[in-house]
Design a protein that fits this description.
Blueprint (H helix, E strand, L loop, with lengths): L3 E4 L5 H12 L3 E6 L3 H15 L3 E5 L5 H14 L5 E4 L14 H29 L2 E8 L1 H4 L5 H21 L4 E8 L12 H10 L8 H12 L9 E4 L5
Parallel strand pairs: 1-2, 1-4, 2-3, 4-5, 5-6, 6-7
Helix pairs in contact: 1-8, 3-4, 4-6
Length: 243
């Protein structure tokens, strides 16, 4: 039986590589992004042609609960719902807390944390009906230890970790697993703000001696999505031994 996955933040980086991997294994794939509609539509069409599977672009800002509601209405017009939900959408903010305004704070929290509520709430009923499902949240090592000049981001990812642990306990009796991946430095657009010197210094701090790749992260997402039914409520660090 063909299964369905919904991946948020699928226009680049980890989300894009996860979408490619699921499509290559002939899943039905729903790909969400807020902007980049033209690129997302073209990418979805390319995946469908290449792997002969259904890939549907969903252009919604899921930091807004009303738009998340509309997105799931579109999903339910096509499918009963996702068997696997990958909550990958996220943004960062680098700067001193006392220089941050409330709009920036709310934008980070709503995108990185509130979107989990909006998507999980609407994905869970189908999983309950099927008595199975996987929810995979993309977190960060900063959610475990915090980062100077990234207070809002760290707080949002700490919230993701607590959300993951609590929801896992709530859904375990229904055979639905909820886990998070706490990423270290993954070589994505989010981390390309660093200069060459800063990138070199970061690599020297990481025991593995390099950044992780989006493809490696996508593989871990897929592994969690396709097995490990007794593994739930875990925050799995993918950081090359860094934190």
């Amino acid at each position: 039986m063909i299964k369905t996955v919904l991946i948020t933040g699928a226009s680049h980086g980890i989300g894009k590589e996860a979408a490619r991997l699921f499509a290559s294994r002939h899943w039905n794939v729903f790909l969400n992004c807020k902007t980049s509609a033209k690129d997302m539509i073209a990418f979805s069409e390319d995946l469908s042609r290449t792997y002969k599977t259904a890939c549907t672009p969903l252009i919604y800002d899921i930091s807004d609960d009303a738009q998340a509601e509309d997105m799931f209405a579109e999903i339910h017009a096509i499918s009963k719902g996702p068997d696997v939900l990958v909550n990958n959408a996220g943004i960062s903010y680098i700067g001193l807390l006392d220089a941050m305004n409330i709009d920036d704070w709310n934008r980070v929290i709503n995108t990185n944390l509130t979107s989990l509520f909006s998507c999980c709430k609407r994905a869970i009923p189908h999983m309950l009906h099927e008595k199975s499902g996987k929810i995979i949240n993309i977190s960060s090592v900063w959610g475990n230890v915090g980062a100077s000049c990234e207070v809002a981001y760290s707080a949002s990812k700490g919230g993701v970790n607590a959300f993951t642990k609590a929801l896992a306990k709530e859904l375990a009796p229904s055979n639905i697993q909820v886990n998070a991946i706490a990423c270290g430095v993954i070589d994505t657009r989010m981390n390309r703000c660093f200069s060459e010197d800063e990138r070199r210094e970061l690599m020297e701090e990481i025991p593995a001696g390099r950044f992780g790749s989006p493809q490696e992260t996508a593989q871990l997402i897929y592994d969690l999505a396709t097995g490990h039914d007794y593994l739930t409520g875990q925050i799995i660090s993918l950081d090359g031994g860094w934190c």
